[in-house]
């Protein structure tokens, strides 16, 4: 938005200020518990800071009364990896199928969206009941996986829609013209080109699983994942150990996010130059010109 | 293999997961909603007693009113904030890379734990929290504000904190598709900037508003833990009542509640969807 | 000699399930080593034919024969054809060398060997210095050469080009045009080049095939298409001609006389028939072979002359385009109401004309070209 002189209107500053407030609103609270987690032994749940040190981090991982954090992490991370892998494979496969309308594509699409917006606890109850009434045992590596997929798959699907919507099918035709079989085309051409999208799906799959709470509540079986552990800690623990856990898990999430976004940025930069174009510059003719 | 067979194979996993972990569990919930609960546990039956209970209890009406009220308030604020944040990012930030970067800044918290983000409000809002301390130190108030935490206010703040991103993303997407030349055309026609926003931008981002609204409203309607923690027990939501039920193994009653909730939410979403063809917007097919 | 790259299309049809007919009975022969252009407006079927030759689409009827072999049912990689796509479709994640070597990789050739072959082709098109670059780092002209190299590494007998110059800006287009021509001469294989630009087709092609609505209107050399269009459609499509109709009156001394809609007398060189089956005949007069004069100065009775008012004057550098509005009687059928004259620039400015002046355009009988197929004409732009 520019005025004719190129100077920014006053609304820019107003909105920029508003945006800054929003960012502060988003990150401020987390910053607070981040700071508070570094308190010393006399620390409390509120300000002011009492002491300084890594006391509560040690407390978190060593004390039994703070719960089985290490155990929960040892389940949450493999679970997230499993869900991430399944989400990527299933989303890519479905995305490929959805490129052309097929019978039932509408139902499947709306079904996926419905699965996404359905209340997590209701689904969790339902899956729990299903396993119970069928006499099947529930575990974090079976029932929880299925439950979490009901929220990661729709996201993965939507991302794949966006990716394939921009994907120029001429690449596949060119590969076919040059003699490549369908499996080879998928491996050598399609997957490498949509790799940034795949990384995005993986990011969603991993983080949504790692933080998934409502759907996992009734489906993780006898052991807890990390979010479930955190939940029980909010009712039991009245010390900054909870904040320390928040800091640790959020830092971990940030690392995962940073790695994914950097990978995507690097790939895009290398392939498409400094712009954010999705097609190589110059000869971006696009679609068939009839005839 | 034939094209048809390949497509079937490609969507088989998705269909299987959705059937096994979405459709069938809902059917189980439906089934259990007709079960009977006696002193010894859940007994398979076919009875409408749970629905009778749900529909006649005063509690149900209270819960729905309360939850819908929250949904409406949260919807209003997330839309207001989300709209202007998206507007700023799309139309005021000149460098596209910077815009994407700032957009990611808004999105990053979404990839962290909601529960952690929720409890991170505790040291801020409490009677001894940071906000109260600051206000007292600045001599703006004498006694700490009690309504900041364990209240409706805290619940709404937390919902807005968690869910505004769901408004920002569809709005950002819709706004990005607007042809910038329209702004110049509006300017030529003599429209003020506010008029341009109202008469040009808003109609064109209708689908984004619809999508964001569906997300926010269903998320609030389906929440149980924010309300539990942030209202200090003062309020419950529909789903938190369900949570309480299953804590004492009252599955049939919770199931009936769940079915009823699903119907209500489907009706709400159906009403909203009359506005726009969402699939066309999302899939962007040529 | 029939030649490896000789293409024959016999009775080819393409009908889609929803009823649209993209190709409506095409018979065409392209000799080996020819540069052939398929020319026509959007929707005329030219790209569909290209894709059917390539094997990316199958004809619903008819035969496609390449180098004497019927290629029905064969996949694209087994026809000896290679296609260059409109947007080039260079794989963005592969280097130039990997892009070029792709076809060999698809056939399972080992890396060292296919790199050797790719290097040889890169030498041929002068891309060796760019071997390790990614497509995003190349200019438009370089990208086209990579697309070309990628296609010819399999030593095809036919190269199919789908509007290869459409996406380029004007200046680049002219440059790339001559590179393509040169390439074709060097390789000696058949090129089939699809375009909707008339001047591009006549510039590069040995054989121009004008298409409309799924059918071939005319297939001839570039000069043949431009100077001797067969039908009114081709004449109008190529530009450069005025199309007129007249009712047949008499034939004598190798000349036929027609009566125009306004009573004008047109004299044409006689064709084989003594009297045509259809009383209305159509003929074309080249726009640059018409002389303009003020109406008063025309001798009477005028033969091969039209009268009109100057409607528009457009300076085109080498010539000045003068458009006349002809006076037409009510209910005139398919008569032209516009008449265009290209006046040589120098001559125009020695005696300029103003808009609204009444002028007369006349031509010699030798510059008349009789058209077949009646006065009908498809959509033109």
Summarize the structure.
With 286 residues, chain B is an all-alpha fold.
Question: Could you explain the architecture of this structure?
Answer:
- Chain A is built from eleven helices and no strands.
- Chain A is globular, with a radius of gyration of 24 Å.
- Chain A has about 290 residues and is mainly alpha-helical.
- The longest helix of chain A has about 30 residues, at about 240-270.
- The mean pLDDT of chain B is about 85.
- The longest helix of chain B has about 35 residues, at about 60-90.
- Chain B has helices at about 5-30, 50-55, 60-90, 95-105, 115-120, 120-125, 130-135, 150-175, 180-190, 195-205, 205-220, 225-230, 240-245, 250-275, 280-285, and strands spanning about 35-40, 40-45.
- Chain B has one domain (about 60-285): MetI-like (MetI-like fold), CATH 1.10.3720.10.
- Chain C has about 375 residues and is of the alpha+beta class.
- Chain C folds into two domains: about 5-230, 3-Layer(aba) Sandwich (Rossmann fold), CATH 3.40.50; about 235-370, Beta Barrel (OB fold (Dihydrolipoamide Acetyltransferase, E2P)).
- Chain C is about 25% helix and about 35% strand.
- Chain C is built from nine helices and 20 strands.
- In chain C, strand 7, helix 5 and strand 8 (about 190-195) form a beta-alpha-beta unit.
- Chain C is elongated, with a radius of gyration of 25 Å.
- Chain C starts with 6 loop residues before the first strand and ends in a 10-residue tail after the last strand.
- The model of chain C is unreliable at about 375-380 (pLDDT under 50).
- At the A-B interface, helix 1, helix 3, helix 4, helix 5 and helix 6 of A face helix 1, helix 3, helix 4, helix 5 and helix 6 of B.
